[in-house]
Design a protein that fits this description.
The protein is built from eleven helices and twelve strands. By secondary structure, the chain is α/β, with parallel strands linked by helices. It has two domains: 6-100 and 286-303, NAD(P)-binding Rossmann-like Domain (Rossmann fold); 102-276, Rossmann fold. The model has no long low-confidence stretch (mean pLDDT 96).
Length: 313
């Protein structure tokens, strides 16, 4: 009988996937250990364990104490929780699970666009609180002919575009470089904001994008503008966003991500012209199963000495 490879799992990020990993590998559930016990486990597995599985959005930095670590297999797309400088210096490979969640995240993005543009959440409250008896609900604007400006037009962004075009939205975008696409390109975020009715952020996390959506961007977006974020919360100056909403510098916002999840600033919660979701972009059964299957395929490729299916960088 061939021994199963050792695998460290940092947290119970998806029960179905963790159960599959438990069947396939000799797993060690790092989240069940205390601080000192973790270090003892990692030391004991040195030389005999080369891979860990982790949620992409949060990582246990103690795993870098594993001196034989060669692969960090991430469940998710954004990998800003990974210390890439350290990983590269130690030749630790990193994989993630792109593409399989494009549709579910794009669905949430369009849901936020519709909810904020037509003030859906407050309309529901208006009916429940018998406000309709006192007159009609305030008018909002149609999507037809408006410009959706996307910051970071990648694979998920293109899936959002596919959903937006039937609503007769115009598309504009900002990337680090122009793409071969039939949409208007702007070389800066502020310029894109100035020319957008709805500004949608798809930026990844990390220091390079931290707080790049700031007061100047909201000022450029203007009083009729709406801001949507389904990328990473750290790319937004949340204090500036709260001020922009409170002062009506922008018309509204819709967020599925935050800088310090699950903590949401009270200044945002207090405002009525914002829709707040609990990071549910990929939270559908089908997508999470596909994400887990892709993580497992990357592990299988690694242990078979084959190219990874979705290696980062």
């Amino acid at each position: 009988m061939i021994d199963k490879p050792n695998l460290i799992i940092t947290s119970e990020f998806h029960a179905e996937t963790v159960a599959k990993l438990d069947m396939l590998y000799n797993t060690h559930h790092l989240w069940k250990y205390s601080g000192l016990e973790k270090l003892e486990l990692l030391k004991s597995l040195g030389g005999s364990c080369q891979a860990i599985a982790t949620a992409s959005w949060i990582n246990d930095d103690s795993i870098y104490q594993l001196n034989s670590l060669k692969l960090i297999a991430c469940f998710g797309v954004g990998v800003d929780a990974i210390d890439f400088a350290l990983a590269e210096s130690r030749k630790i490979r990193v994989s993630n699970t792109p593409d399989v969640l494009n549709d579910s995240v794009a669905d949430i993005a369009l849901s936020l666009i519709l909810a904020t543009s037509r003030n859906i959440v407050n309309a529901d409250s208006f009916v429940r609180k018998q406000g309709w008896h006192n007159g009609p609900f305030p008018f909002r604007h149609s999507l037809k002919g408006k410009t959706l400006g996307i910051i970071g037009l990648g694979r998920i962004g293109e899936a959002i575009v596919e959903r937006a075009l039937p609503f007769k939205l115009k598309i504009a975008y900002h990337n680090r470089s122009r793409k071969d696409l039939p949409y208007r390109y702007y070389s800066s975020i502020a310029e894109l904001a100035t020319n957008s009715d709805i500004l949608l952020c798809m930026l990844p996390g990390g220091e390079k994008t931290r707080n790049v959506i700031d007061e100047a961007v909201f000022e450029a977006l203007g009083q009729e503008g709406i801001f949507i974020n389904v990328g990473r919360g750290t790319s937004v100056d949340e204090s500036a966003l709260a001020r922009a909403l409170k002062s009506k510098q922008i018309a509204g916002a819709g967020l599925d991500v935050y800088a310090n999840e699950p903590c949401v600033p009270e200044a945002l919660i207090e405002e009525e012209n914002i829709v707040l979701l609990p990071h549910i972009g990929s939270s559908v059964f089908e997508t999470r199963t596909e994400m887990g299957n892709l993580l497992i395929k990357n592990l299988e490729a690694f242990f078979a000495n084959r190219p990874l299916i979705s290696e980062v960088r």
